[in-house]
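Give me the 3D structure for DUF2721 domain-containing protein.
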Amino acid sequence: MLLLAYTNRFFALAALIRSLSSDGKPVHSEQLKNLRRRISIIRRMQEAGVMSFALCVLCMIFIYIGLNKIGSFIFGSSLLLLLYSLLLSVIEIRISVDALNLHLKEMGE
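Predicted structure for DUF2721 domain-containing protein (109 residues):
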């Protein structure tokens, strides 16, 4: 479910970028900078999430074959990657909120 949420964020951002480029209206440099940053963060979120789940599967394999200490170490690594992914998610949400606030400010002018 987590990866699905990340993918939905990516698709929403891609749709926004496509609509901005087809409008023909000028896009502020701050908005472009913001969009590039968000794309990069979402990519890293997805990579960390996938690696976390892959290590979790590897952990289960090691525990299944009786290598519990190695499995525990790999599981700890997967948890750290998941934590990193979630922290990136919070950062991306904050950037998104900043972008919305910038848009609201422009609308008020």
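The chain has one domain: 2-21+29-108. Let me know if you want a second pass.
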